[in-house]
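STRUCTURE:
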């Protein structure tokens, strides 16, 4: 009888660990939901419909990976599908962001496949060693543009011009 209890306990532990998120998994989901949840008032946090409305507003100004996350959930007008209810109900129950993301992963695996690009430390990086694609991304992430830039040196020059406005010393 004792052996059966140990086996059952071990099996349950394995099932729980398989279903829980690994370190770094669903990083965009967890970070975005945490940031979003922190913008909600106590009254909004208790009402799934208000959570969904606020999430749509929250998504309007997001870019890159967070924007793609909103698209997958149905938080954007152009979203093809919507599973906002799968996010709003658990949040209204005060479920932590990582647990909500676990539930969302079961509905759409793409949600947890979103990963942030590695950060580039602009104080130490040699811009000449970066690819043009990375230089364009830096400018785009800053919400700036480089009209007429074609050569790598032009992108580097533009980044150097903008660097004081967008980096902390």
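SEQUENCE:
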């Amino acid at each position: 009888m004792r052996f059966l209890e140990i086996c059952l306990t071990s099996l349950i532990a394995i099932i729980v660990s398989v279903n829980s998120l690994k370190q770094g998994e669903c990083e965009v989901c967890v970070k975005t939901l945490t940031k979003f949840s922190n913008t909600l008032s106590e009254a909004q946090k208790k009402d799934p419909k208000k959570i969904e409305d606020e999430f749509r507003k929250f998504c309007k100004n997001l870019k890159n990976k967070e924007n793609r996350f909103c698209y997958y959930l149905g938080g954007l007008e152009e979203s093809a599908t919507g599973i906002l209810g799968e996010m709003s109900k658990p949040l209204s129950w005060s479920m932590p962001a990582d647990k909500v993301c676990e539930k969302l992963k079961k509905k759409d695996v793409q949600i947890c496949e979103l990963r942030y690009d590695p950060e580039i430390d602009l104080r130490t990086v040699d811009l000449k060693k970066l690819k043009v694609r990375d230089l364009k991304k830096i400018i785009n992430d800053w919400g700036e543009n480089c009209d007429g830039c074609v050569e790598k040196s032009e992108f580097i020059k533009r980044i150097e011009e903008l660097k004081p406005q967008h980096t902390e010393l």
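REMARK: The CA atoms of residues 38 and 80 lie 27 Å apart.
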